[in-house]
Amino acid sequence: MATVRDPEATKARIFEAAVAEFSRHGIAGARIDRIAAAAKANKQLIYAYFGNKAELFTQVLGRCMVDLASAVPVDPDDIDGWVDRLLDYHATHPELLRLLFWEGMEYGTAELPDEEARQDHYARKVAQIRDGQERGVITDTIPAGDLLILLISLTNWSSALPQMRRILTGTGDGDQDRLRASIKEAARRLVAR
């Protein structure tokens, strides 16, 4: 009996295996052989579907960022809710921040392979912040792009460095709730008019 091939299912398995591999090992440390084994796919299919390892990484990170943007759009009208949703998203998808850290270590300040698409991605987020500023919902004393990076940093840092979060804020009952409340208060103060 002939095996029925399902290219979309294979691509999905490769993608999930690549997310796991890249978030664990970065671009340089990731191995296509391990991705193929985890995806139960032929290594050549990875190259055919996604290109080389760097191209695969770019596609993986790009799709993860699109998923985040779709799941947690910037909302200047509800900073508390946005912070909650962002913290929750990163708690259930820790791989995204890991991928971003690996990308930062690999590329530093050099241009990214998908720089133009990334600029478009963030330009939409900055536009949402600017719209909130123009409507008087949040402060306009800080430029929109600067304000967005400050809010993202404030919200993401404790997820990106869980060891520092644990050491600095504790592991007892209520410590995470207290930290979340503190992050939200800091965000409110940052955007206050």
Query: What is the distance, rounded to the nearest whole angstrom, between the alpha carbons of the first and last residues?
Result: 69 Å
Radius of gyration: 19 Å
Shape verdict: globular
Helix run count: 10
How large a portion of the residues is in β-strands, by DSSP E?
Answer: under 5%
- Content-based structural category: mainly alpha
Order of helices and strands: HHHHHHHHHH
Major sheet attributes:
none
What is this structure, in a nutshell?
The protein is mostly helical.
Helices, strands, pairings?
Layout: H1 7-29, H2 32-39, H3 43-50, H4 53-71, H5 79-92, H6 95-107, H7 115-134, H8 144-160, H9 162-169, H10 175-191
Helix pairs in contact: 1-2, 1-4, 1-6, 5-8, 5-10, 7-8, 8-10
Walk me through what this model shows.
This protein has 193 residues and is mainly alpha-helical. The chain is 76% helix and 0% strand. 20% of the residues are buried.
Give short descriptive properties of this protein:
globular, mainly alpha, 193 residues, 0% strand
